[in-house]
UniProtKB/TrEMBL annotation:
<keyword id="KW-0012">Acyltransferase</keyword>
<dbReference type="GO" id="GO:0016407">
    <property type="term" value="F:acetyltransferase activity"/>
</dbReference>
<dbReference type="InterPro" id="IPR024688">
    <property type="entry name" value="Mac_dom"/>
</dbReference>
<comment type="similarity">
    <text>Belongs to the transferase hexapeptide repeat family.</text>
</comment>
<dbReference type="InterPro" id="IPR011004">
    <property type="entry name" value="Trimer_LpxA-like_sf"/>
</dbReference>
<protein>
    <recommendedName>
        <fullName>Maltose/galactoside acetyltransferase domain-containing protein</fullName>
    </recommendedName>
</protein>
<keyword id="KW-0808">Transferase</keyword>
<dbReference type="GO" id="GO:0008374">
    <property type="term" value="F:O-acyltransferase activity"/>
</dbReference>
<feature type="domain" description="Maltose/galactoside acetyltransferase">
    <location>
        <begin position="13"/>
        <end position="65"/>
    </location>
</feature>
<dbReference type="Pfam" id="PF12464">
    <property type="entry name" value="Mac"/>
</dbReference>
<dbReference type="InterPro" id="IPR051159">
    <property type="entry name" value="Hexapeptide_acetyltransf"/>
</dbReference>
<dbReference type="Pfam" id="PF00132">
    <property type="entry name" value="Hexapep"/>
</dbReference>
<dbReference type="InterPro" id="IPR001451">
    <property type="entry name" value="Hexapep"/>
</dbReference>
Length: 202
C-alpha cells in the first residue's frame, strides 16, 4: 500500500522513523511487518545461498556492494529496511532484530546465536500501553565487535569499536570502544588495548 493511498498510515510511519510516539497497529505498518515476516519465512526455509542473498535484498537490508553479509537462518526482523550492515558481518542463527528504527552494525562484526536487538519501547502506563502506542530508539554497534550468544540490546543502547559482549549480557546503555562488557545489566569488566597502543609504547 502506497502512502498516497493511506495518508494516516504514512504519517504514523514517519513518526515511527523519527522515534516519536506512533500507532503500531495502523494498517500500513501491520502490512509492512507481515510482508517482512513472510520474507523471513522464505529466507529461513531456503538452503541455496544465492537465493538467501536475494531474499536479504528483498528485505531491503543495506550492506556494501563489495561485501555480502553471512546470516545463518533462522533470522527474524520486523521491517528489514531499518537494518544497516557493514562489511563482512556474520550473524549466527536465531537472531531477532526488532528494527522499528535503525539498527547499525559496523564492519567485521561477529554475532553469536540468539542475539536480540530491541529498538521498540512501550509506555509504562498500562492504559496507554493498551492503545498500541509506542516509540523507539536506535541501536548502534561499532566496527570489529564480537557479540556473544543470547546477548540482548535494549532501545537506545550502543557499543563502540572492538567491543566484546559476553554471552547473555543485557546492554541497556552506551559503551566506549575497546572494552569487554558482560552481566545483567552489562557493565565493563575489562579494558582492551586500542590498536595503536603498542606504537605509543614503542
Amino acid at each position: 500500500m502506497e502512502g498516497t493511498e493511506d495518508p494516516e498510515g504514512q504519517r504514523q510511519k514517519e513518526l515511527m522513523l523519527r522515534g516519536e510516539s506512533y500507532d503500531a497497529s495502523c494498517k500500513l505498518l501491520v502490512l509492512e511487518r507481515e510482508k517482512a515476516h513472510d520474507t523471513c519465512f522464505d529466507f529461513n526455509n531456503t538452503r541455496n545461498e544465492k537465493d538467501r542473498l536475494r531474499i536479504i535484498r528483498e528485505l531491503k537490508i543495506t550492506f556494501p556492494e563489495d561485501s555480502e553479509p553471512w546470516i545463518v537462518p533462522p533470522f527474524y526482523c520486523d521491517y528489514g529496511y531499518n537494518i544497516h550492515l557493514g562489511k563482512d558481518v556474520f550473524i549466527n542463527f536465531n537472531c531477532v532484530f526488532l528494527d522499528v528504527v535503525k539498527i547499525s552494525l559496523g564492519d567485521n562484526c561477529l554475532m553469536g546465536p540468539g542475539v536480540q536487538m530491541y529498538t521498540a519501547r512501550h509506555p509504562l502506563d498500562y492504559k496507554l500501553r493498551s492503545t498500541f502506542l509506542e516509540d523507539a530508539r536506535e541501536i548502534t554497534i561499532g566496527n570489529d565487535c564480537w557479540i556473544g550468544g543470547s546477548a540482548v540490546f535494549c532501545p537506545g543502547s550502543s557499543v563502540g569499536d572492538r567491543v566484546v559482549v559476553g554471552a547473555g549480557a543485557v546492554v541497556t546503555k552506551n559503551f566506549p570502544s575497546d572494552v569487554v562488557i558482560a552481566g545483567t545489566p552489562a557493565t565493563i569488566i575489562r579494558h582492551l588495548d586500542p590498536p595503536d597502543s603498542n606504537q605509543r609504547k614503542a
